[in-house]
Every structure is written in structure tokens, then in C-alpha cells.
Amino acid sequence: MLFSGITFLFWFLPTVLAVYFILPTRRGNMLVRNTWLLLASLVFYAWGEPKFAILMIAQIISGWVFGLLIERGRGTKASKYALIACLAVGLGGLAFFKYADFFLANLNLIPHVDIPLLRIALPIGISFYTFQILSYDIDLYRGETAVQRNVLTFATYVSLFPQLIAGPIVRYVDVERELTARTHSVENFAVGTRRFVAGLAKKVLIANVLAEFVALVGAQNTTLAAWLYAIAYGLQIYYDFSGYTDMAIGLGLMFGFKFLENFNYPYIADSITDFWRRWHISLSTWFRDYVYIPLGGNRRGAARQVLNILVVWTLTGFWHGAGWNFILWGAYFGVLLLIEKFVLAKFLDKLPSALRHLYVILLILVSWIFFASTSAHEIGARLGALVGSGTLSVSPPVTEYYLRSYAVPLVIALFGATPLPKRLLSHLETSKYAPILTVLEPLAVAALLIVSTAYLVDGSFNPFIYFRF
Prior knowledge:
The chain is 74% helix and 0% strand. With 469 residues, it is mostly helical.
């Protein structure tokens, strides 16, 4: 079930909200409402993959039991063994369902080796909920959070449908209090509704339209098309994922949860380091806190730091998918970060802001070629097209036609990827037009919902890139 689907928007969500707010809280105790959210989340997940809901429940129970064992054995080796077992079960399950065929396919490249592929369907959201379970047990082992003894509360945390499918990766320590004693208000519900509708519009009206453009120019083997493909894909994945994140954060606010931000205008970054402080923040901070720092971070000398960075970013790429293109994508960023840190840092600081931004944008656009391609041949062809290799036409009529046809959504997407719309809105909210804005804002939200719904009813093209991760 997609957030940007008619079934979710007009059947599932209204039903869940109506029952949720009818249920009693018993003097602030959230157990009854949490139980309803848990049931709703299981229905949401099982809607498309009933058998994999059983896998998620098994992972939840194992993570909860390991948490109890970690707490019971605190101060002894038993606690450490329980954590190791938790990591083995969580990462083992992720490796089996997501990466088994990748490893088998690569083993089959060895002469005289022919192992049949398992061809297991990828459970939706497994990368996200696995990392949430692991973060809880690791934090518990470190003494950074208290054990959750109620399995229903823990299951609600892991399976909460607003962030279950595509994040953000929510850590238990960030929602621990809200799981048991959150508050609700009309104001937060209104803010959540606006955030949800804005995310829906980003997904349906911008990302989906850009996906059509990406498909068209991606089929053109020309230099102009290659650049348009990289630009449009970069914008598509941003609006696709950040739109979904906006919807998740908005839904969280409706139910009394405050999820941390996952994007902060990444395309205005002035370095690759800055880009990753702004893009998929929950993932980059997860790898920093649970992989990079435990490996030693920057505390064991330059050589070890280089190794740690390369390990973390190769794993970051591999987390995104079982393919060499994702590994190359992650390693590409690892190398860029190392070059920035040890070679370019002082030089970049002296460059004008515009040149720093241009440097980042060009490198990011190249990165999307790795990310979106499915083979080494495709990566080579698209990278070659960017620099006009071979006999490629620089500006054929058909590519120019596609550009004119999609110029408006492209311009809107470029403008919306900057803080300018938010700054303009903030300025209006403190100006003499504020009373008018108070009236127009809900009308604008309603209009966006109506237009987005009309688009969904009229068309069936509704892809979501991060579902495969």
C-alpha cells in the first residue's frame, strides 16, 4: 500500500485516524492506541505481502527478546553474547532476503560453479525496520536507553506504518517517551496534515512527472539527453524520497510522534561532506554512530580513518541494493569524501560560493548515473555520453522537444529544491499579508490534495524508487 494511493488516502488513513481518536488513553497511557496502531500497521504491511508480515513479526519478537537478555545480563558476557546474537539474526535475515542472489550470481562467475539462484522476493522495508531493531538493542547494550518490557509497545515502534516502508530510520531513543506518553493537539494535527499534503504533492505532481521525463530522455543516446537524464533523475529521487519523508513526518505528527528531519535542501550543499549532512540524514547518522565510530572513527590515525570511511561508504552503497552499481556509488562517495578531507579542504574554502556549489552539483549528477544504472555497460555509456563520446548528437530535435514539453515541471522542481519557497512563505507570514495567508493556506492545502487525487485517479504511473531498498 502506497501513501500516494487512493486506497490509503480515502479508506485506510481515515479509518485508522477515526478509530485512533475514539479510543481512550486511560490517563495518558497509550497502550490501547498503540495496540490499534500496531494492528493497523500490520494490515498496512500485509496489504501487498502477507507472508512477509510474518517475517517482520519474527524479527520484532527476536529483537525484543534479545533486548530483555541484554538487560538481564548487564555487566556480564551474557549481555554481549545477546547483542552478538541480535546482530547475527538481524543482519543474517537482511543478507539472506536481500543479498543471497547477489552473492550466488557472483559465485557463478567462477568457472565450473553453477548454483541455482533462490529468486526470493525482497520484503518491502526490510532495510529500514532491521536498522531500527538493531539501533534499539545496540543503544540498550550501551546503556543509552531503558529496556522496553512491553512487546506490544516495542512492536508499535518497529512497525509504525508512517515510517515502516521507507523511513526515516527512527531510533527508539528518539520516540521512547512518545511511545508511552505522547500528547495530541489540533495544532500539531493541522501541521501534520499540511506536511503530509505537501509531501503528497511533491511525490505525485513533481516526482511522478519527472519520472516520465527520465524515461523519455533515458532512451535517447545523446549528450544533451545524458545531462537531462542525470539532472531529472537527481530531482526525481529527491522529490520521490523527500516527499515520502514529508508524508511520514506529517503522519507522525497526526498521531503524536515527532520524527527527525531526513532532508535539508541537499542540493544547496557547498561540499560533498555538507551534502551528506543534508541527504538521507537518518541513514548517514546511523552509519556514523553504529559503524564509523565503533570502527574507531578518526581516533586511530589517518590510515585507519581512510579505511573506516571506505568501509562505511561501501556499506552505505550496498545497503541501498544488491548490485555492483550501488557498491560503486557508495565507494565513489567514500573516495570523494577522502579527497575533500585530505586534499581539497583548504582549496574549497577559498573558492567563491557559486563555484563550490557547481563543484558539488556536477559530482552529485555523476553519482546518480552509478545509482540508476543496472550494468557496467550502461554506466560506461551514460558517463561517456555526458562528455560527448563517440558520434553522439549533442542536441537532436527529439531531445529538445522533450525538454520544451517538461520545462515547466523542471523549473518548478529546481526552484522547490532550494530554501527560497520556505523563505518566501516565512516572509509573508510576518508581513501585512499574514491575515490573507491564514485564509489562503488551508485552501491551498485542499487544492493540492484535490489536484494530487485527480492525478492519481487519471493515471496509473506511480513509481517509488526507495521501495526496492
